[in-house]
Amino acid sequence: MAKKVSRRLQELQKKVEERAYQPLEALTLLKETATAKFVESAEAHIRLGIDPKYSDQQIRTTVALPKGTGQVIRVAVIARGEKVTEATNAGADLSGSEELIEDISKGMMEFDVLIATPDMMPQVAKLGRQLGPRGLMPSPKGGTVTFDVAQAISEFKAGKLEFRADRTGIVHVLFGKASFSEEDLLTNLKALQETIDRNRPSGAKGRFWRTMYISSTMGPSIELDINALRDLKTDAN
């Protein structure tokens, strides 16, 4: 059964032409089409020329968004001893050892990022059924398995995000709020593009970037000209 498209979205879709927009033009349109009754997130959906079923064609990494995510990130830390105290002092929303693992096993999911110290990972691994489907399982590549819990908490609360390609080779990432300025959204999107290029899998052959679409949470998809984004120079370059 086809999904019914609301009248609001149908009207917004009429504003979007079937072409690849220049980056700032696309972001202006994203802001114009974010008309929901709440502050919508800005999303990027990027199709890459990879087949993640092969280990040398997978992407799982983190991006530090220079302008932040615009979201309040709830961080939980599983550690033991003084590391639990360190996590609490560094601003963790939840921290604990076996008791926190027990709570999560019973369905407690009141966090957006889960950090674990390496010595706790054998026990955390048992939470695969709860954490795996939500993409919350800590991993070294994601920067969420570390003894430096204070640094990790600080980074994730400031705008660091973990992302990965799904099984079809598409990366879905939030890169801010529709209320951000076009320039701030562009700064975050450029950081995301550079991170993906830096982490191009060794097994990726041929054209790596296929398509990029951006949208607000409830808005229409807008195709963005990937080459124009990659050609942009930032202040850091």
CATH class identity of the largest domain: Alpha Beta
Give a quick account of the main beta sheet: strands, pairing sense, barrel closure.
Answer: 4 strands, antiparallel
Terminal CA distance: 49 Å
* Rg, nearest Å: 19 Å
How many domains, in number, for the residues? 2
Strands, total number: 9
Strand order of the largest sheet: 7-1-8-9
Low-confidence blocks of residues: none
Shape assignment: globular
Q: Which second-level CATH architecture of the largest domain applies? A: 2-Layer Sandwich
- CATH overall fold name of the largest domain: Ribulose 1,5 Bisphosphate Carboxylase/Oxygenase
Kindly report the average pLDDT value.
Answer: 92
* Helical stretch tally: 9
Tell me what portion of residues adopts beta-strand conformation: 15-25%
